[in-house]
Amino acid sequence: MPTPTDCRYTKEHEWVRVEGSVGTIGVTDYAQDELGDVVYVELPSAGASVKQFEKLGEIESVKAVTDVFSPVSGELVEVNEGVNDHPELVNQSPYEKGWLIRVRLADSAELEALLTAKQYDQLVAEAHSE
Known about the structure:
Number of strands: 9
Radius of gyration: 14 Å
Number of helices: 4
Strand content: 25-35%
Order of helices and strands: EEEHEEEEEHHEH
Helix content: 10-25%
Strand order of the largest sheet: 1-2-3-9-8-5
CATH class: Mainly Beta
Structural class: alpha+beta
CATH architecture: Beta Barrel
């Protein structure tokens, strides 16, 4: 699956797609592939605050439980209830139906600390070559 160029990425394999002042956050295709079949997603409630690079929740797969970190700081405005009911959406559609949360950004300048799609692809390629 090609890496969407309209997102920014963390080194921990989360993405954020910003529209206006709201960022949609999820895990990358690479992350969901490494996790294996996702069976449970634990996310905070709307109204919670998240901080850049701090833990925002967990994803449980048949292989492991993995922390999810926020690529940006802000107020959580929406949780994808679809992944609570159907966690496999994270595997099936990580950039569309399998998003996790939406956040009202506290500081759009934080996006500069994130990777572009090209930089993220390079990071993944290096991980595969090790």
